[in-house]
Amino acid sequence: MTPPAVRLTAISKRFGAVQANDAVDLTVAAGAIHGIIGENGAGKSTLVSILSGHYTADSGEIALFGKPVKLATSADAIALGIGMVHQHFMLVPNFTVLENLMLGLAKAPFLAESRADVRERLARIEEDYGLSVDPDMVVERLPVGLQQRVEIIKALIGGGRILILDEPTGVLTPDETDRLFESLKVLKSKGVTILLITHKLREIMAITDTVSVMRRGRMVAHTATADTDRASLAELMVGRSVELVTNTRSRAAGEVALAVRDLSAEDETGKGRLHAISFDLRAGEIVGVAGVAGNGQSELLAVLAGLTPPSGGSFAFAGRTVSAAAPADPHLMRRLGLAHVPEDRRREGLVMAFQMLENAVLGYLRFARGARRWLLEKRRMRERCDGLMRRFDVRPPDPRLRAAGFSGGNQQKLVLAREHGAAPTVLLVGQPTRGVDIGAIEFIHRELLALRDKGCAILLVSVELDEILALSDRVMAMNAGRIVGILDAADADRQSVGLMMAGVDRAANSDRAAMGRAGMGHAGMGHAAGDER
Amino acid sequence: MHEVIVDIAQILASTLRLSTPLILCAMAGLFSERAGVVDIGLEGKLLMGAFAAAAVASLTGSPWLGLLAGILAGMAMALVHAFACITHRGDQIVSGVAINILASGLTVVMGIAIFSQGGQSPPLSREERFLPITLPFADALRGVPILGPIYADLISGQNLLVYVALLSVPLAVVVLFATSFGLRLRAVGEAPEAVDSAGYSVAWLRYRAVLIAGLLCGMGGAYLSIAHGGGFVREMSAGKGYIALAALIFGKWRPVPTLFACLLFGVLESSASRLSGVSLPLVGAIPVDVVLLAPYVLTVVLLAGFFGRAIPPRALSVPYVKDR
Amino acid sequence: MSAAPLPRWADVVVIPAINLVLAFLVAGAVVAIIGENPWRAFLVMIEGAFVYPGSLGYTLYYATNFIFTGLAVAVAYHARLFNIGGEGQAAIGGLGIALVCLALDPYLPGVLVIPIAIAAAALFGAGWAFLPGFLQATRGSHVVITTIMFNFIAAGVLVSLLTGPLIRPGQSTPQTRNIAEGATLPKVHEILRAMGFDAASSPLNLSLLFALVAAVGVWVLVWRTPFGYRLRTLGESEPAARYAGVAVPRTIVIAMMISGALAGMMAINDVLGAQEKLVLNFTAGYGFTGIAVALMGRGHPVGIVMASLLFGALYQGGAELSFEFRTIDREMVLVIQGLIILFSGALAYMFEAPLSRLLSRRGRRAVHA
Questions:
Q1: pLDDT tier at C3 (50, 70, 90 boundaries)?
Q2: Is C46 within 8 Å of chain B by CB?
Q3: Which molecular function terms from Gene Ontology are attached (chain A) (predicted)?
Q4: Which of A358, B261, B310, C29 could make a disulfide contact with B250, Cβ separation 3.0–4.6 Å?
Q5: Is C329 on the interface with B (CB under 8 A)?
Q6: Where are the domains of chain B?
């Protein structure tokens, strides 16, 4: 019997106070697709970073194909045939594909000597694995799926026999994901051993042969994928049975709170990012915006929050119409009753170096001003923060600690608490549970539903389709800056929304009922538009 | 006609001489900044190089040892910068400011300690300096129309280090764009994580880039004190390091445009003295100060984006932190 | 990343102290290499800064300059703007004072001229910082580079004016005529003598008071006002500032102008207080020293006042060095200054991780005991 491709024994790694990996064992058979699943922060990324030489383990042993090895640097791992495809691409954006490949491969002093060799290797990769890409394209001009292919080629072209993919599908459409999985199956058939790191149960079930589950830095289970199912994997991940929130609606949606009409926006370079977006958001409903990252959802949030001006069209909110001629700013939008939980909590939603009491008034200095309006009162800020922390169970409940000292879930709870505390009529929410532990996810989901039930209109943007489907009353799919369609929750399932995310307006072809509601087939305005006419 | 050509050749020659330290410093900055390390300390390294070169040339009588000392001094300062910015991820601008101030102080303190002449070095004799090199037949060909004066007064009769500075530009082009070291150096200024994950050390690449910068600045300093000038004088770098930095930005971090920016600033400097007092129609007399300030004003105007955007390397001034 | 954050006392006291000691040790090594006794040099400096008659006045006079320029650097730095242009802004501030005084002192009484002159110093300094701030805010040109360029331009402007239209008639030194007696700030020794105390002469004048008021003002501005909150938010994270509705360009411009105004006010001390005229190069690098002061003081007014005192003592004591030693010059102070910027600025966190490990190990041992 052939020795396993990878055998890790008692790997431990500590970062300061955090034990990221605690005596982890892992065995991966040669030529298998092995999944490692776990929650955010379970230690999956640390483990594969050790395997790829990016970090060095504090203790433990690594053996490849039966031979014990030392992996002190990335170079060691690459030399031993380990290739890693990172979650965030490790490519030089303004270099060509060829230059990016030569970064690791060019050994001769002059590039000219290596160029022909690298082209030849690239041709061989295409022949062997069916992975093709134009070597002279500048990487930043390639679509994301192709950029990822470059990463995979990079991992294999130096003679890689073990391929590690860290959360590879986060940036892909369902369709691109399927294509990636096809490629992986081809690689497997050619004898490449594959480690797939993910937090998505569906992917594990779809493609892996064997699976390991990590929880809080420990390996808690190894099993053949065929012998398990999603429910038991989920339970292993979390350590208890998962109680998913169910969206039971207490009352029908109310008045239109936010009316968006033909809204367009451009980025700084003048490139169109949003194209003629129209929809209504009603009091007491959650509209989920589904889409692969980068298809205009972030821009939509930015325009509605007053962060970027629209380039065309308008939206009406609280008696005011915002357009290119009459732009808004975040300050004005907040005063009108719009709150915003931003997608990037660490860069936007909080100032990491600030105390929580300062973060509790970010955007809401009106709650911090004292009797003399030009001064801020520390006492008022502390009291406000205290209240928010208690209401949303933020731990530790100390307003004087800096934001950086809180876990992702507690940071997010504070942001949500702050926006909640302003009693908004419309709430924009971006990626509410990114990098948040399961306990906090449940809490956040429940609070969003409660807020909806109290009559708040919520626009929810998330790249987690499961989250969208679980919380939304209506689902709006975006692709390339356009609304592909809007479905009622009852009609929305993974498949139909996934197709729409890929730009296929299925509603227009097959689902007549949905089409009627979506405003005669074109980028729909939602059923509210019909009521208005 | 012939006189005009002679005049032009002489202006260009003086331009070349004044541009030389700018070119060396700007190429230094090019290497450092293309690798992602801001180099505001060009000025300090230039000054240190000038002092060390003059001091050693004076003490040993050898311009070659002086040059070597200038280079080593420039590299020593670069090493401090690298240690602070790369090893300890310090603020690159703060470190550059520290180096400039340190150089201002150290050169004078050491100068007094060694020579007791108020911070200057003794004037250097001809044997202790690099002198203009007369190329073959320069004098014989001077009479040839047009090409004669250009050969005799511009191409010939320059200092060794002037030729070195001019050579440094094509050399920079080759190193940065035709070698695998250059490819990785540029990559480390754009996306260091890509280089790291490819198995190459970001720190070591950046160290080398910063040390090359030190070497070139040291040469520039040596040129000031033992080639162009005849000894070290307090603050003799006189802002040239900053002008070189301006030229680098003006040249949009590319070698050949940077060379032309250096030459442009050199022309302004060399013509300043000639233009002073010259009365132009409508404008009246041109004050020297205004011409001398032109590089600074031009740089501000360029940075404001009026001649097209100068896009710096993406990872410039960002310390590399290995992170998840 | 690898170590726990330091307790506040260690961050505020121990780390700066270590950095300062290191800077002095290296400077001492330089003195030793030159062949002098570093300890003796240190004593000479202390004596020169505090003991000789009038020396304390000089020390405080220098400190006044550094409080202004240090505060200037700090205010901008809270918005992560690195204003290296204090030198130029101070020079132009001085120009403002000179223009006001030369134009008005024949006609108006001093009590009117002085406040106008002080306002002019602040306005001219702010004006000189406006363009770099505006260009950063609207065109993205980096203030570091533009303020460096503006330093050179300011120096050029002053040379032109002081060798030309503003030069004192019949003189070749590049300086203006003296400001009328009643229109200058009283010197401290004059006040003390008037009150019947015996006081040695020094250039120390009422500007010190203004500097201390400015320090308090900066503290209130940065930590107690909405503007300060926005300033710090912008400094920590521009996306967060934009999210919070901070008008980023306006905040950048205002921050730079406040910074420039503080730097410009440094000129009060020299032009209106000590020299009583505008002299070429009166800024003498104080603008750059402000960087060291702000870094050492960690951007906090209390720290800045303390660091200013230290640098005041260094400048005054350093002047004494050249009298006592044949081979050491006051430029030694520049060496120390450069080292302080290096250690407490660029290498500020060299000792953070080791110290944090040391503290946590001790903490753990205490728990086990």
A1: very low
A2: no
A3: ATP binding; ATP hydrolysis activity
A4: B261
A5: yes
A6: 2-303
